[in-house]
Amino acid sequence: MGTKSWVMLGMMSLLLGIGVGDWNIMNVKWKKQGVSISLKNYCESWRMNVELNNIRYFEVVPGECVYYIGKYMTSTQYKVDSERALDECTLYLNSFFKLTGDGKDAWIFDIDDTLLSTVPYYKKHDFGGEKLNRTSLEGWMKKKVAPAIKQTLSLYNEIKGRGLKIFLISSRGEHLRGATVDNLIKVGYYGWTGLILRGSEDSDKEVQKYKAEQRKMLIEGGYRIWGIVGDQWSSLLGLPNAKRTFKLPNSLYYVS
Ligand SMILES: *[C@@H]1O[C@H](CO)[C@@H](O)[C@H](O)[C@H]1NC(C)=O
C-alpha cells in the first residue's frame, strides 16, 4: 500500500473517528491481500525490514511511519533491544575471548547512534521524515551535545577493562575531530587507541568500502578484530571483517 492510500485512510478514519476518545490512527485496520492490518503493523514491518537489511538506500522514513519510528526510537523497547544486542557482546566475550597479551586484541565501535545518540537532533527533524541536511546535522554535531547511549558506554568500559584496544571508525569527517573528541569525553568515553574519521580522500567513497579498508589496515598492523558494534550495516559488512558483528537498532536513516 502506498503513501496515498494511508493518507486516504487517515482522512477517512479522521472523519469517522471524531468523537471517539481512544481513536488512534496506528490501530485503524486496513485490508492487505485479504489480511486485516493496522498502520502499526505496516510500520513495524517497515522497521523490521530495515533492521534485516532488506530495505536499503532509503533517504527518508516513509511519511506515514514517521510517528511510529519516532515513538520506537524514543521508547523503552528501543533501549531494551539495544541492551540485548550489547549483552550478546558480553556473552560472546565470556565464551570466546582470551587476551593474548601482545596488545593486538581489538574491538571496533561506530560513533553515531552507537556510542552517541543523534535522536535529539532527529526529534527536531521529523524523525527521519525530512531529507538529511548535512550542514544542519554537522552544525548540531559541532555543538557537542549528543548524549551517550548509556548501554553502550558500559560495554565500552567493560571491553576496555578486558584489555582490548578500542578503535572508533566513523563516517564523520576529519573536520569534526575536535568536536567529536570533546563530545565523547564529555559523556564518559575515553581511552580509545584510534579515532578514525573520513579524510578528504575518503569522502566520496561508499562508507562500507571506507570502513573495510580501515579494518584492512588494522589487520595489516597485526590487530585481531574480535568484534564490531554498529547501527548501520555499512559498518558491519565487507571484507576483511571481524570475528563477530553486532547490530544496534536504527531506523532513522540509512548510510550506504
Ligand atoms: C540546511 O541547513 C542549513 C543550516 O541550518 C541551512 O542554512 C540551509 O538552508 C539548509 N538547506 C536546505 C536545503 O534546507
Largest sheet entry: 5 strands, parallel
Radius of gyration, rounded? 20 Å
- How far is the N terminus from the C terminus? 26 Å
The amount of helix comes to 40-55%
Q: Give the SSE string.
A: HEEHHHEHHHEHEHEE
Number of strands: 7
**CATH class categorisation of the largest domain:** Alpha Beta
CATH fold category name of the largest domain: Rossmann fold
GO molecular function: acid phosphatase activity
InterPro entries: Acid_phosphat_B-like (IPR005519), Acid_phosphatase_pln (IPR010028), APS1/VSP (IPR014403), HAD-like_sf (IPR036412), HAD_sf (IPR023214)
Protein name: Acid phosphatase Class B
Keywords: Glycoprotein, Signal
Topology:
Elements: H1 3-17, E1 29-32, E2 35-38, H2 39-51, H3 66-73, H4 76-96, E3 105-109, H5 119-123, H6 134-142, H7 150-161, E4 165-173, H8 177-186, E5 194-198, H9 207-220, E6 224-230, E7 244-247
Helix pairs in contact: 4-7
The structure holds 2-acetamido-2-deoxy-beta-D-glucopyranose.
GO molecular function: acid phosphatase activity
Protein name: Acid phosphatase Class B
Keywords: Glycoprotein, Signal
What does this structure look like?
Helices cover 42% and strands 15% of the residues. With 256 residues, it is α/β, with parallel strands linked by helices. The strands form two sheets. Strands 5-4-3-6-7 form a five-stranded parallel β-sheet, sandwiched between helices. Strands 1-2 form a two-stranded antiparallel ribbon. Strand 1 and strand 2 form a beta hairpin. Helix 4 (76-96) packs parallel to helix 7 (150-161). The protein starts with a helix and ends in a 9-residue tail after the last strand. Bound molecules: 2-acetamido-2-deoxy-beta-D-glucopyranose.
